[in-house]
Amino acid sequence: MFNGNRGRDERPAMPPAPPQQSGGAKRGMFSVLGPDVIVTGSVTASADLHIDGRVEGDVNCGTLAQGADSQIFGSVTAESARLAGAIEGTVRVRQLTIERSAKISGDVEYENITIENGGHIDGRLKHMSTIQAAAAQQGPRAVEATSLPVAANEHAA
Q1: What's the pLDDT tens digit per position in 36-45?
Q2: Separation CA 97–CA 88 (nearest Å)
Q3: What is the pLDDT of residues 120-138, one digit of tens each?
Q4: Whole-angstrom distance, CA of residue 153 vs CA of residue 157
Q5: 153 beta partners
Q6: β strands within 75-128, DSSP E
Q7: CA angle in degrees (0–180, nearest 5) for 101-106-111
Q8: 144 - beta bridge partners?
C-alpha cells in the first residue's frame, strides 16, 4: 500500500561533471588515438596528444607522443614531440626527440633535437633560430609607389 519505490526512477544518479578550468591545455589531460583509429582530416588538440593509429592530415598540438606503429601523412606542429612512427610531411617542433624506430620523410624544423641511433630522416634539418634570423635579416620591404596614367576628360567647347 505504501511502497515508496513505486513510480521512482531506479537508475543511479550521475556524478556531477568536473569543474571546467579556464585557460589553455588542462594539466594532466591528454587525448589518445588508439591503434585501431584512422583519422582522415586534420587533428588539433589543446591538451597532450598520443597517436598510435593513422592520421591522414595535419597534426597540431602542444605535446605529441607518437607510437612506433603509427603513421601520419601530413605536417606536424607542436611545442614538444617524441616521434617513433612514420611521418610523411613537414615536422615543426621546438623540443624534438626522434626515436630509433622513427621514419620521417620531409623537412624538420626544430629548436632542440635528439636523434636516437637508428632514427631515419629523409629531408632537410632546419634550426628555428636560423629561419627566424633569415626572416629578420630580410626585414620589411618598402613598397614602391607607381604613377598610373590618368585619362583626361576631353570635352569640345
Answers
A1: 999 999 999 9
A2: 17
A3: 999 999 998 866 565 666 6
A4: 12
A5: none
A6: 76-83, 86-88, 91-98, 103-105, 108-115, 120-122, 125-127
A7: 80
A8: none
Are 78 and 62 in contact, with CB atoms under 8 Å apart? yes
Name the grid cell of 147. Answer: 604613377
**11-40 pLDDT tens trace:** 555 445 444 444 444 556 889 999 999 999
Pairing mode, strands 71-73 and 54-56? parallel
Task: Note whether 76 and 64 are within 8 A (CB).
Answer: yes
**Long-range CB contact pairs, 135-142, < 8 A, 24+:** none
C-alpha 75/C-alpha 34 separation (Å) is: 19
Contact predicate 97/65, CB 8 Å: no
Report the C-alpha gap between 65 and 81 in whole angstroms.
Answer: 6
Scan for cell 626572416, then name that residue: 135
How far is the C-alpha of 83 from the C-alpha of 103, rounded, in Å? 9
